[in-house]
Amino acid sequence: MTSSHQVKRREFYNGIPEFWYDLYDMEYALLDIHLIPQNTIMAIHEASKRVYAIFDKTADLLRELDDVTLLELGYPEETLSYIRYKSVPQECIIGRFDFVVSDGSMKLLEFNSDTPTFIKELYRVNEKVCEYYDYPNPNEGMEEELAKELKRGLLSSWKSVQREGEAKIVFTSHADNEEDYLTTKYIQELAEVPSEYVSLDQLQIREDGLYTPSGVRIDVLYRQTYPIEHLVDDKDPLTDDKVGQALMQLALEKKLSILNPPSAFLLQSKGVQALIWGLHEEGSTFFSEEEHQWIERYFLPTYLDPETFEESGMTYVKKPAFGREGDTVKILEATGKVLLEDKNETYKQTLPVYQQFCPLPVSVISTDEGEKEASLMVGSFIINGNPGAIGIRAGNAITDNESYFLPVGIQADKKERNTCKS
What pTM did the predictor assign? Predict the structure, then answer.
């Protein structure tokens, strides 16, 4: 039996073109709204700007580290030359922080600096939900800012390859993955530059560059959703050639520019958070006194081994340095007893990092199956160093790929929620 809420949800989201309101045959985008006070929104933006400043400063230090240290931070050996290459002035065009926001405090869980998703949801769809419930949109005007920075990043990338003539810009993803494909098409639409979409499997690598199926050489490749840690292992199914590594080599030889840039992958490893926390704990002069205060306020103790938590009796999280959607994540007691774990183990061979456990706040959400409790994680975009759109993933205590998109609105004074629509 179809619920009234389910009918309304489908009717509403069917009115938003090219949006995946269901994923993996499951409800994804909720017809619900979570209200956040304006001062909290401003605090999330402030936290994002400060945390990014820490990562931005650390990027130069990372490029100076020797190979052994970089390997200890979890980077694949095949990427070491690539991550040291600074192709454009911007370290990261589009990044997303994941925060625990609870009782006035904000703690960083991780930085999705290389291939963050959740973009169309927060930059376009959230506004539609706010209009539906008649609440102010905390992300108002940010789509235009995103478009502006995309153009700027694409221009910087084209200049870096130093080829004359008109730039050939290609956007790419796995065309058979609905979320990846539609996210990439949305970014392409926003950029408003002459460009083409080509599926990853249709790109052609030659000695002098990367080409479209029609034989046009590509200057800039925008791969919003395909991680470098996956690309590095890519092989041609017919020849067994390491095409992913060949693609990175083209970038190093300035025969191609790739966005997000190599520096975005440099910041993706959660080992970077362990490095930042280690420098903070030893009182390193690399960070200013103010920056140390920011690290203490927003970062969680993070290490490359669990010893500190085992000795202090603290609950901690074991997570892969490169991992996504809660895959291979475990919450453990100091004794090593597993309290909660994601059953997927895709990243079992990836270097683990150990982070102090910080529980997500819990709230009631409205779903097709009725009301239920869910843990809330705040995603906050950072666009070339500037705070961007915010939104919420609602789901299990470990945020996984079954989590919901929960739209957010600004909690207005003396205004009641329009409950007749829920």
Answer: 0.95
